[in-house]
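Contributing: when you submit paired examples, paste them exactly as shown. First protein:
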Amino acid sequence: MNASVEPSVEAQLPASPASPADAEPVGVPPRIIPRAHAPRLRALDGLRLIAALMVAGYHYGGRDGEVTEAWGSSPKHQFPTLHEWFAYGCLGVQVFFVISGFVICMSGWGRPLRAFFASRASRLLPSYWAAVILVTAVFALPVVAYQAVSPSDALVNLTMLQQPLGVDRVLGVCWTLWAEVRFYALFALCIVLPGANRQRVILFCAGWTLAAAIAQTANQPLLNIILMPEYAPFFIGGVGLYLVHRNRRDAYAWGIVGVSWLIGQHYAVMRLWHAPNPDFFSYRTSFGIILVVTFGYLAVAAIALGGLNRVNWRWLTVAGALTYPFYLIHEHLGWVAIKAYHQTLHIPSYGTFLLTVTTMLLLAWLLNRYVENLLAPRLRAVLSAARR
């Protein structure tokens, strides 16, 4: 999800040569060079929206489970042909992770640790808290068929640590946020804290790739939790693509991207492919899985190289702002909307699908306007304030 990214796109200004009088004393961390705002990469906002809609398609029509109760029958019967295409929508998460790698490297470059933490926390937490409260409240209503988590578990969910603590999740999609948080922690400790530069980022990507491969071989739960072998290639690939964005002729950056794609498609196929079986909801071909993963890398690469600079429509900024709150609420509240539209109002399947997506986008707009826009700047200011 991230599925979340920084709401603004920034680039580092080139540093002017320091005179001997300006040189930093030995042992003092290098000064952070102020950064100017670069034109927003609106195509990246559009890609985020596409990834979010892919995941929504998967949750509404590409799988069984709780959504079957909302439809009144399996989505396979509601969408006899499209359900096979919707099944590939779960790979929108991998696309999100590639985007996240790109944007986190971009937003953390030249930024002190306090500002990086404040940026991430203010971006993630306001909508997340609101979504947890909203979904818990809706599921507690007597007319809603789905069971709410216990009050204690709901409170733990506010920390974003429910998954490692073994607590019931309020939001089904929050497992991706747990992956994002671990990536942020690794990037902050290895790159932001000592100060970002090309060599350090390249070593980070190479070291993480090798360590994740070793963790996969060692099969140690703690290493798997920290290094995330299954998802690391997508974050690392996004970081490599940001290096490409800075210098398209950087052979090391292209090497990082290529190796990450090779490993990433392997994990995606290993997790999502199975032999044709009529007892399974749907069948994803290995070629189709590789194609969707490749689309994610190529799309971010096209943005990194400036090939989509003409995709600069202002409405994409709004789309990008809605993506995160939409992603948070679309699954669970989508079940409620689907049941109301389809079983109560008897709206046909395709109409229900479109109405549900529209409803979730409207709710996301409300969260963005009345929660994110009000709370995020205040939270960022509090967390960024220097200690006295």
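Second protein:
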Amino acid sequence: MIPFNVPPKTGSELKYIEQAINSDKLCGDGHFSKKCEAWIESNFNTTKALLTPSCTAALELAAILIDIKAGDEVIMPSYTFVSTANAFALRGAKIVFIDVRPDTMNMDESLIEAAITPNTRAIVPVHYAGVACEMDTILTIAKKYKLWVIEDAAQGVMSTYKNKALGAIGHIGCFSFHETKNYSSGGEGGAILINTPELVERAEIIREKGTNRSQFLHGLVDKYTWQDIGSSFLPSELQAAYLFAQLENAEAINNYRLSIWDYYFSELSQVINSDKLPYIPNNIKHNAHMFYIKLDSNEERTDFINYMKKECITTPFHYVPLHSSPAGLVLGEFLGNDIYTTHESSKLVRLPMYFAMPHIDQEHVVNAVKGFFSDD
């Protein structure tokens, strides 16, 4: 089988992990953590980057950082991973889901303002497939109503919106370095980007179990104590060492993935209508996180997946909308009409895409897709 995903490897991971082991410091905030954070800050122009054990942890840290509490409301798309909603529901917030745009599968920015109430505290744009949401509009609305913008940029590392890195545009951004993402920290991992300077000190405290240990390690205080609520939001040095090997080669990984994406698009646009293929708006650079196709129906999608399986190709679908899930029905509300979220997501299927995917496998995927549509 051609797998859907293979975690990226650059060749330096074991060397850096061995260096971390030999340093005799394996807990968080060591040498490789600092190198990764400095790389993110330098390349993405964020005030402060802090590695976390996952993007889930980054989102949960963000929810604590902006003081989300019971009775607050947070606006986001329903078409996203459960962590996007869970992070805020854990603090007692009501999740307000709005419809997506059918072209990008991102939240429809034109629906945000109607979803705002006196209880609204934050907007959480999710950059689906590494393609940016319409951030200018979102930021304008947030400023008007004094709302936080927390970017779920789990899929958006190395993507930009009007030359600004995703994750570094809102007040806070959250990255994923899970093995399914373009860059991995050894299977699990993430980062929080603090783009609002006044939040940095508290973010460091929350991340260190609510203590000012970070200030102590920097020599700013002579002892550290419990200062605030918090949790253990630090990854190990082994994860950071693995990740640094990836970040050092971020451009090469990005370019290789883009070459696969471009090849898929060039070949498949010959046989598939453009409205069934990914759409990239102007002023946006994506990171080739994903290449998807939309079929005509859920039934045709099932036929497609089965056809590709016979061709030894793995082609999974993606999220089931959160508002229709058992927890979503209790913890959230879909505001307005579900015109596109359920309908479009039920037709979407993803093609294999990973760093170092052999071109012969890419050709086989393309030929199989063409075969399905010609038979169809």
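If you have annotations for the second protein, write them as plain sentences, like these:
The longest helix spans residues 250-268.
Residues 270 and 325 are 37 Å apart (CA to CA).
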